[in-house]
Amino acid sequence: MSGERLSLLIIGGYGTFGGRLARLLGDEPRLRLLIAGRSLEKADDFVAELRSPKDGSEGLGSSALGASLQAVAFDRDGDLAEQLTRLRPDLVVDASGPFQSFGEDPYKVVRACIGLDIDYADLADSTGFVAGIGGLDAEAKAKGVFALSGLSSLPALSFAALDVMAPRFSRIDAVAAGIAPSAHVKIGLNVVRAIASYAGKPVSVLRQGRPAQGRGLIEAMRVTISPPGVAPLRSRNFLLVDAPDLALLPARLAGLQSSFTGVGTEPQLLQRLLGFAAGLVRLKLLPSLTPLARLMQRASHGLAIGDHRGGMFVRLSGLDAAGKPLACGWHLIAEGDDGPFIPVAGVAALVRRLLGGVRPESGARPATGELQLEDFEAEFRRFSITTGIRAESEGAGLPLYHRLLGSAFERLPPAISAMHARGHAGAPGAGVRVASGRARVERGRGWLARIVARLIGFPPAGEDVPVTVRFTADGEKEIWTRHFGDKSFHSLQLEAKGRDRHLLTEVFGPFRVLVALVPEGERLRLVVRGWRFCGMPLPLFLAPGGETFEEARDGRFHFHVEIGGRLTGLVVRYTGWLVVE
Question: What b/e readout covers 154-168, taking b as 16+ CB neighbours within 10 angstroms?
Fold first, then answer.
């Protein structure tokens, strides 16, 4: 410790990830943050912004900044011993990169730190760099310092998620992990250069338990990221990327048969173009995409189309303790601009552990296993980040809504969970359940709204209308028959498959509506995520909308259903309460 504060030197401190790390730790009064880079002017500007953030800028905790801040010039190609001796950091965090292009002596910063008894950590995503740092283990142990590489989403966070899920398995056959950045997040040039460096080129993976060669940005797998209780990300293809997990997993899991790490960018059209360009590299029509890195970055910034949310997944498959097939996935979704804080959460957690007197063992090694998933999630609580685990093959026999919500079903108020927990196959009195109550019905007045309402069979407008809902379980489907007075209509509800997995499908005649189930306090919101007519996808902006939710009020189940659209206006709105008979 330097005086009463831990002195932390962040190389690349005003860059994409270094800057976010500084913001994340900026409210910690026990820290001395050295914001370092080749340009002292840029470092000064960044520190000034941290101290007095402009309106709309990312100033996490900066309104009551507690860390001591200092802008410094640092050149990784200069006299490292002289610079480090002058700055006297207790810990150096390398957040620069790309680590794939650090030249003939990629570990010179690490060696300099070890030589001066300075601890070291980095956000490296280069397979070779992270896997090779163990060559400095003896030197680091002799000096009593630690050097941890890859303290980022891949591999530190992905391995922490793996460690939580692994006890469910007697054997793990396949591991896949992927990152889905928001289309609206400005990806740094170094990240793009790293990806471009291996696009279309061989990437070492496992296939049928043997080392094999995949192709960067060409091989793909489709995944829907969906933490329990959160509207899922749109299903997307993840293209193979070279991540440290691919080199480290075989040593962690003996007998592993298959491995994959990928990136799923939005819009998917841009990703397909990248895949096409990678194919040109594979065919040797282009030597590399590295010269196109800046163009690729501009394209990603210019085509910021899609939801402003990103995510990550880690998926395991194998056998459970009884020898039955099991697939289990850890999912993460970050809203808005919060996603780019995920790669630095591990370093922030490490620093907080150091401040609390918890120190990693001496030595140089990959950062897998250094932090637990709860360490990362403690950092995530400052953001709109949701995580959760889905055991995909453990939902058989559960009611429809329970299968869709997973562990989030247990968070529902009793009045709501009771409405959806009965009548499934295998339960006492399985097959049918009935609920009755009262409702108020409103109808739209437009001619198109009246046609749609008549086509589906929605009830006429009325006050204090007696209502009965009959739920009939048919395998994994449910038929809902609603009686409003002497008028009835029915719909079919089931779990969506394929690209729409983790969504509820409700079928009204020729229409099929895809809905996300989202618990919020005493409510269960139903959010429309897509729709079909006779099986054909229709534009989402024309989908039937309106606020629809179930609610527990005074211990009783209440419903609020609103159906309308841009073309029709309000079609029908019915609100009321039900009690299971």
Answer: bbbbbbbbbeebbeb
Is residue 486 within 8 A of residue 469, CB to CB? The reply is no
| Cα–Cα separations (whole angstroms), residue 39 to 20, 43, 289 | 18, 6, 28
pLDDT in tens, 276-317: 999 999 999 999 998 988 888 888 878 778 789 999 999 999
Q: Which contacts (CB < 8 Å, 24+ apart) does range 57-65 have?
A: 58/20, 58/23, 58/337, 59/23, 60/23, 60/24, 60/26, 60/27, 60/382, 61/23, 61/24, 61/26, 61/27, 62/23, 62/26, 62/27, 64/27, 65/26, 65/27
- The pLDDT of residue 424: 42
> For the domain with range 6-152+341-380, which CATH number is right: 3.30.565.10, 1.10.8.60, 3.40.50.720, 3.40.1190.10?
3.40.50.720
- pLDDT tens across 163-185, in order? 999 999 999 999 999 999 998 88
Q: Model-level pTM?
A: 0.88
Closest CA to 21 of 74, 81, 77, 61: 61
Please give the structure tokens belonging to residue 521: 């306090």
